[in-house]
Amino acid sequence: MTMLDAQTLPAVLLGRRVEVRATAADNNNAQLAEQFVGDEVRRANDLFDPADRNSMLSLWMRHPRSVETTPEFDDVLRVALTWQRLSNGAFNVRAMRLHRLWTAAAQTGCRPSGRQLKKAVAEIAHAPYTFTGSELHRVDDCQGLDVSAVAIGHYADRAVDLAMLEYDLSGISLTIAGLTARRGNNHIDLVLHDTTRANVSPTPISTIRLHEGTIAVQPPRHRNRSRARVSDVGIDPRTGNSTPVRTSSTTIARKACSAALVSETLSILAPEEGVGFVERCNAELRPCDLNDKTISCLILENSGFVRTSQSWASHETR
């Protein structure tokens, strides 16, 4: 029996380009699966696109009392709270306020004062919403709320899991903004390279094999804010300042939501703190019932030094 690939279907999820490829014995099933993923992308945009004034998120931020949210919407906001707690605030749903502060400062050429940063950090320290049982409550101004990383991971998981079940696929992969979610029998081998040394050919640092699961690659942030766009600079929500070191990271997890959120958080944390964060996630995610068992990471420091979590070696090929 010949396995056929449908043509890669491009789409845009929350402003990021999505590519999906489904494999099946029946090419019609593969095409239907990719159309299904496109429908899921549109649903996600209808709920969570902050650029769309008519998305549920935008409407809820402006008129919380007049918008009846869906269980799916609530689930994404609930997961965001869990990750904000796990990261001790390094992942923060209100971090966009800090980026806006630095953007305004860049336009005027004046760095935000210590008092301004301290005030902004205090304002975003707590999420502007909470849950009483299953009921969502807004407790503060939600303008600028950013749950995009959670929504992207949530819909990547949902799309590939449901497509595998509904369309008799042998495999499916979805790629968005450095994150690739895979389901099926086939594996891929990836070689990670040290790209920190200028004018030197990249050297391999790890070769991994990915079966079912998700890999997220976070390129290094710019260290020098004066030479970078504010959007390219990591801002630590706990201090309001830029991240202290320039690193890149690779994260492997069963679920795309976990991989996306860990990857984003690692871009903020110092390398040694990042590895500790991943180990803490592995200890705490099981009782949280977030459907992930082991998260692994490799962090490449600007010096070329490599740090890995305990479980990283289980993905390496010998």
Description:
This protein is of the alpha+beta class and 318 residues long. It has eight helices and 13 strands. The strands form three sheets. Strands 1, 2, 3, 6, 7, 10, 11, 12 and 13 form a nine-stranded antiparallel β-sheet that branches. A two-stranded antiparallel sheet has the order 4-5. Strands 8-9 form a two-stranded antiparallel sheet. Strand 8 and strand 9 form a beta hairpin. Helix 1 runs antiparallel to helix 6 and helix 6 packs antiparallel against helix 7. The longest helix is centred in the first third of the chain and has 22 residues. The protein is globular.
* Beta-strand percentage range: 15-25%
Form type: globular
What is the count of DSSP helices, taking H or I runs of 4+ residues? 8
- Helices and strands, in order, run as EEEHHHHHEEHEEEEEEHHEE
The helicity comes to: 25-40%
Main structural class:
alpha+beta
- What is the arithmetic mean of pLDDT? 87
| CA(first)-CA(last) distance | 32 Å
The main pleated sheet reads as: 9 strands, antiparallel
The total strand number stands at 13
Low-confidence regions: 222-232
Radius of gyration: 20 Å
How are the secondary structure elements laid out?
Blueprint: E1 4-5, E2 9-13, E3 16-24, H1 27-48, H2 56-62, H3 71-86, H4 96-108, H5 114-124, E4 129-132, E5 135-138, H6 148-166, E6 171-176, E7 179-184, E8 188-194, E9 203-210, E10 213-218, E11 247-253, H7 256-266, H8 271-288, E12 296-301, E13 306-308
Antiparallel strand pairs: 1-3, 2-3, 3-6, 4-5, 6-7, 7-10, 8-9, 10-11, 11-12, 12-13
Helix pairs in contact: 1-6, 6-7
